[in-house]
Design brief:
Helix content is 24%, strand content 22%. It is α+β, with helices and mostly antiparallel strands. The protein has a four-stranded antiparallel β-sheet, covered by helices on one side. A two-stranded antiparallel sheet has the order 1-2. A hairpin with a 6-residue loop joins strand 1 and strand 2. The longest helix is centred in the last third of the chain and has 14 residues, at 93-106. The mean pLDDT is 79.
């Protein structure tokens, strides 16, 4: 049986609709990836590469967030001001890394896996 925490008393309980300890109604989180931390799985120096990875990961059902440190007013494309990071929920880490590895094995990009 799946164990969850009551949002009111923080007791670890079996998955149910009412907490047997405090009697509170249990809110179930239907969005599974919100329960897991987002992990940095890849960095690149172009937003185009990041978007390509994002499309491929999302087509496999993996939620993706891109964090760009790209300094757009100055159009800097080198160094720390040009880093684009790709994040996925930790439960998708293995699948995401496999997909990225498959993409990289077919392409020769100058990006770095984290």
């Amino acid at each position: 049986m799946i164990k969850i925490k009551c949002q009111i008393c923080n007791s670890e309980i079996e998955d149910t609709t009412t907490c047997p300890v405090c009697g509170a109604e249990i809110e179930h989180n239907n969005n599974e990836e919100e329960q897991y931390p987002w992990l940095l799985i890849y960095t690149t120096n172009t937003l185009m590469n990041a978007e390509m990875f994002k499309v491929n990961l999302e087509s496999a059902g993996i939620p993706v967030q891109i964090l760009s440190q790209f300094d757009s007013p100055h159009q800097l494309t080198v160094g720390n001001l040009a880093i684009v990071k790709i994040y996925v929920p930790s439960i998708y880490e293995t699948d995401a890394r496999e997909i990225i590895e498959q993409i990289e094995s077919g392409n020769s990009m100058n990006d770095n896996e984290v």
